[in-house]
Design goal:
By secondary structure, this protein is of the alpha/beta class. Among the domains are: 100 residues, Chitobiase, domain 2; 192 residues, Four Helix Bundle (Hemerythrin (Met), subunit A), CATH 1.20.120.670. Helix content is 49%, strand content 9%. The protein has 28 helices and 15 strands. It has an 8-stranded parallel barrel, surrounded by 4 helices. A 4-stranded mixed sheet has the order 1-3-2-4, covered by helices on one side. Helix 17 links the parallel strand 14 and strand 15. Helix 6 packs parallel to helix 10 and helix 26 runs antiparallel to helix 27.
């Protein structure tokens, strides 16, 4: 069984150039990481080296830990990434530290603990992959180099050795299109705005909320060079983009006889913004355009020989004929190898999962068989919930990476399927004739539910599941806060059995809570867990606050659980208000609706404002900071506001990327709820039915006004998280216990 995966892994290793870079250079990169993470003084207590020979099998990263106590802590790795992962293991398991997106807990004991003997760990996974094409837009779009540097450090510490590096590609496409004869105006008309580039790159969208300013291209080229340099310095493999077949409409002006097919619409957008043009695989322009782009791209950025392209992401192909699908797939691959004979194609397997009714066995076989075995690397993108490898005979022998998708749209909301995540990689590895060659984390958005990603990162170095998740999550809490606390541990065990215990194919990390959705009388308030566990975890965290309040990670988690508790309360008060409306009880409707819209939501906005991670002002300032002029800053801010809310000019994918941010709650969600509840009250008072269609028209004016607003929001936190959380708790927890909402 595993022999197939190993053989394919070796083929990929040979094709992709393997652990490129020099040992000394990678060791220097890790030493610099240690200094950034711990400071120069503590960093002097660590000795780091990179030794390829440490890996018993080529390509399977290995680290070794020894020393400590009175001696230096010695960290050795077969690559820079392996050494960084070893460092992280030492900090976590020996020092009780924690590295996270929100805030890291890095209080080192003195002296540094000794490692008994020598601890050596080898990963069972050739690849530890990270990112989703959508992450580029939902999370990374406005980042500067300082933020990218922190992220690449996080990647290295978590053992990531394969990741997308897609910044700056529009600048390369612009060069290619100009060389082919397109005008600058035609190119500007084609590209989306920055916040929607992910879907432009996959052919779902064009034009929407563009064009891209000239300065955008310059800054993104600069960023991409720095990103690639840093990733390569650790021995990571950056995945560059390749041509997938989608072209601007203007290609038909330059080449009047070109054979293109206009695809169907996507995401409720009309053809002004979707219905992309797809080159026919047999058209002679296809290999020319594909090779022109890749040649220009690799000339600019170099290459590590793995390229990403998605031709049919959430779009039905023009034909279900296997011969067409094979030709379309082969055309993409052949354009790659025309420039890079060692090319390996990284394909998001989302298309097979998203439209299973189209992708029958013959269609799947046609795509997977059109590329030589070992030259197509498939991401089983949503494997923790809806794995594809099990129904495609391990992707017909093509190597695949078992990925945890987990999050959609970068939503806030406590969610996880930790039991499925814990068991999934081993099950895939033991699947008959498995061709699994790695694990991956592929969220659409990051900076949420950090416990889920900590577990997945650890699993990428384990052959077996974590034997006791309750014990693991208790240790996670102690590492995260820097001290073990019984109430904090108990709170996390409650969260583990509730919000983090979703099971079955229906599990999707997409927040559909009434709080963040356009109100209606048909909203679904069911959840997969017992809400009592959330409220009890909330109580326990507050009881630990006297001891743990100095910990930034604790304060973040307390706020996040408070936010979740308020989200539950919104659902409960909504149910009360809806029942009152249906019973025509105006007094009860006004009472429940008044608490929801005039007490609960303002309290949520106030507590969110106490943490820098939950500020709309920070979100929008990131976008504005990228600009080189005030007009450009306004444009970027509007891009960001659209993505958070309407997503399109008419609310095309309304609230898909919802967030719970101070300012967004006050200026967007709260006015919607007030308008809705006022409409229900007027309906009961006047004895006329509530008209959802009319409400939707009215509320759209509010939603659009928010997107077009120039209102500034604070980008610095205000208030004390613990005090504000306690204030909400003391007001609403007794009502929950009593089952009374008055």
């Amino acid at each position: 069984m595993e022999a197939v995966a190993v053989a394919v892994g070796v083929l990929l290793l040979a094709g992709a150039g393997g652990a490129a870079g020099d040992e000394a250079g990678e060791a220097a990169a890790v030493r610099a990481l240690v200094a950034r993470l711990l400071g120069p003084g503590p960093a002097a207590n660590f000795s780091v080296s990179v030794e390829r020979a440490l890996a018993a099998e080529p390509g399977f990263d290995t680290y070794s830990l020894s020393g400590g106590g009175a001696a230096l802590v010695r960290v050795r790795g077969s690559t820079g990434v392996a050494a960084a992962a070893g460092l992280h293991r030492y900090l976590r398991d020996f020092c009780g530290c924690h590295v996270a997106w929100s805030s890291s807990q890095l209080r080192l004991p003195r002296p540094l603990p000794a490692v008994p003997g020598e601890l050596t760990e080898a990963t069972p996974n050739r690849y530890r992959y990270y990112q989703n094409v959508c992450t580029q837009s939902y999370s990374f779009v406005w980042w500067d180099w300082a933020r990218w540097e922190r992220e690449i450090d996080w990647m290295a510490l978590n053992g990531i050795n394969l990741a997308l590096a897609w910044s700056g590609q529009e600048a390369i496409w612009q060069r290619v299109y100009l060389a082919l004869g397109l005008t600058q105006a035609e190119i500007d008309e084609f590209f989306t705005g920055p916040a929607f580039l992910a879907w432009g790159r996959m052919g779902n969208l064009h034009t929407w909320d563009g064009p891209l300013p000239h300065a955008w291209h310059i800054k993104q080229l600069y960023l991409q060079h720095r990103i690639l340099d840093r990733m390569r310095s650790f021995g990571m493999i950056p995945v560059l983009p390749a041509f997938s077949g989608h072209v601007p409409r203007a290609i038909t002006r330059v080449f009047p006889r070109v054979n293109v097919t206009q695809m169907g619409s996507w995401g409720h957008f009309n053809c002004s913004y979707s219905c992309s043009f797809l080159l026919a695989p047999e058209d002679p322009i296809f290999p020319i355009l594909g090779s022109l782009f890749l040649r220009e791209l690799t000339k600019e950025f170099g290459t590590d020989h793995i390229y990403g392209a998605d031709t049919f992401n959430e779009m039905q192909p023009p034909s279900s004929e296997p011969s067409y699908l094979a030709a379309a797939t082969a055309a993409v691959y052949e354009a790659m190898i025309a420039v890079d004979t060692h090319a390996v194609w990284l394909l998001q397997g989302w298309l097979f999962q998203h439209q299973p009714q189209f992708w029958g066995p013959a269609q799947v076989r046609a795509v997977l068989g059109a590329v030589p075995r070992g030259r197509l690397l498939v991401l089983d993108l949503f494997a923790e919930s809806q794995p594809v490898y099990t129904r495609t005979a391990s992707f017909q022998g093509q190597p695949f990476i078992w990925c945890m998708l987990h999050n959609f749209g970068g939503n806030h909301g406590l969610f996880g399927a930790l039991e499925a995540v814990n068991r999934g990689p081993q099950a895939a590895r033991l699947f008959p004739n498995s061709t699994m060659v790695g694990t991956g984390m592929a969220p659409e958005g990051i900076s949420q539910n950090e416990v889920v990603y900590s577990l997945m990162a650890e699993l990428s170095w384990r052959k077996d599941p974590v034997p006791d998740l309750a014990a693991w999550v208790t240790s996670f809490a102690a590492q995260r806060y820097g001290v073990s606390h019984p109430d904090a541990g108990a709170a996390w065990r409650l969260l583990l059995r509730s919000v983090y215990n979703c099971s079955g194919e229906a599990c999707r990390g997409h927040n559909h809570s009434p709080l963040v959705r356009r109100p209606s009388l048909q909203m679904n308030t069911t959840v997969w867990y017992n809400r009592s566990d959330v409220f009890e975890a909330w109580r326990l965290l507050l009881s630990a606050a006297a001891t743990l309040a100095a910990s930034p990670t604790f304060r973040y988690d307390l706020l996040d659980v408070t936010r979740q508790a308020v989200q539950e309360l919104v659902s409960l008060y909504y149910e009360e208000a809806r029942s009152a409306y249906l019973s025509k009880e105006l007094r009860s409707l006004l009472r429940a609706g008044g608490i929801l819209a005039y007490e609960l939501l303002p309290a949520l906005d106030e507590v969110l404002a106490s943490d820098s991670h939950f500020l709309l002002g920070s979100w929008l300032e990131q976008a504005r900071a990228v600009a080189v002029s005030e007009a450009e800053a306004d444009f970027y801010e509007q891009n960001s506001r659209y993505q958070l809310t309407l997503w399109g000019p008419e609310g095309n994918i309304l609230d898909y990327a919802n967030k719970q941010l101070a300012g967004l709650v006050a200026s967007y969600y709260t006015p919607r709820w007030r308008l809705f509840l006022e409409a229900l009250a007027a309906s009961v008072a006047q004895g006329i039915p509530f008209q959802q269609h009319q409400f939707d028209k009215n509320v759209f004016q509010l939603e659009q006004a928010f997107v077009l607003s120039k209102q500034r929001y604070p980008s610095q936190p205000r208030g004390d998280t613990v005090d504000l959380a306690k204030k909400i708790f003391l007001k609403y927890y007794p009502r929950w216990v009593a089952g009374s909402w008055e």
